[in-house]
Design a protein that fits this description.
Blueprint lengths: L4 E5 L6 H17 L4 E5 L2 H10 L5 E5 L16 H6 L4 E4 L25 H13 L3 E6 L3 H5 L3 H12 L12 E4 L13 H18 L2 H6 L1 E5 L4 H8 L6 E4 L6 H11 L4
Parallel strand pairs: 1-2, 1-8, 2-3, 3-4, 4-5, 5-6, 6-7, 7-8
The structure holds 2-phosphoglycolic acid.
The site of 2-phosphoglycolic acid has 13 residues, from strand 8.
Length: 267
């Protein structure tokens, strides 16, 4: 039986004061739900403070991204060693927004390559995180155009194969993979629960093929993309969905608490 995991991805939202207020408003409810693993991923500026507030709870903190070197002349980057130093337990890797598919930026598509991570850098980040015992939350998922073209499975298989290349199966027990269809992120178009379940099952099968059946049975596969209090119940009831990666709805303490409740075993 896999323990459900609910992760709040705040993206580029909240000042320090707003972060503190948000955590304080939901802490009591979320911490009471001890049968659900929970992590909050604030922006880097609020990580330490949020970690301090959560110190005596079962709620963990995670980062939204990382660089793969421990230190050096890498202006603007944060290393796994730095994340470990402040008690980060998780780190999101390969989110479609860091893969360079923002879609909403007023910059030329051709310049996105400079911001974007590649399959290779995702693999390097995962290795660097594992070295520091930080649990990667690996995001995979297809765009609308890839889905229309019938490429969903091929895209996800490739993303998984390159992200996990050379990683020892024994290191994968603490991984989480998030199925995040790009067309469902921040759009309000949640993927149908049965379809999300089918794709999460497919991801489990690919992980089994790439590693072994035991790893695949134990790894947590989350769904992300417009998870809200009113659809969380149905999503989390699906046998292949082990929790959620929640963006917009995690910004509101009441919504986030309700989503965590929905993941509880007797919800
Ligand atoms: P959303 O974002 O819940 O706002 O759709 C999910 C994510 O990007 O992780």
């Amino acid at each position: 039986m896999r323990t459900k995991l609910v992760v709040g991805n705040w993206k580029m939202h909240k000042t320090l004061a707003e972060a503190v207020a948000t955590v304080e408003a939901s802490l009591r409810w979320v911490d009471a739900r001890r049968d659900v693993d929970v992590a909050i991923c604030p922006p880097f500026t609020a990580l330490s403070k949020v970690r301090e507030l959560l110190r005596h709870t079962h709620i963990q903190v995670g980062a939204q991204d990382v660089f793969w070197k421990d230190s050096g002349a890498f202006t603007g980057q944060v290393s796994p060693a730095m994340l470990s130093d402040i008690g980060c337990a998780y780190c999101i890797v390969g989110h479609s927004e860091t893969r360079g598919r923002f879609g909403k930026l007023e910059v030329a598509e051709s310049s996105l390559g400079y911001f974007a991570e590649s399959d290779h850098t995702i693999n390097l980040k995962i290795r660097a995180l594992l070295f520091q015992s930080i649990n990667p939350i690996l995001c995979v998922g297809e765009t609308e155009a890839e889905r229309q073209a019938g490429q969903t499975e091929a895209v996800i298989r490739n993303q998984l194969a390159s992200a996990l290349e050379g990683i020892d199966p024994s290191e994968m027990y603490f991984f989480a993979v998030a199925y995040e269809p790009v067309w469902a992120i921040g759009t309000g178009n949640t993927c149908d629960a049965a379809e999300a379940n089918r794709v999460c099952g497919f991801i489990r099968q690919v992980i089994s093929d790439l590693t072994d059946a035991d790893v695949a049975q134990n790894i947590r596969i989350l769904y992300g993309g417009s998870v809200k209090p009113d659809n969380a119940d149905e999503l989390f009831r699906q046998p292949e969905i082990d929790g959620g990666l929640v963006g917009g709805a995690s910004l509101d303490p009441h919504s986030f608490s309700r989503i965590v409740m929905a993941a509880g075993s007797n919800a």
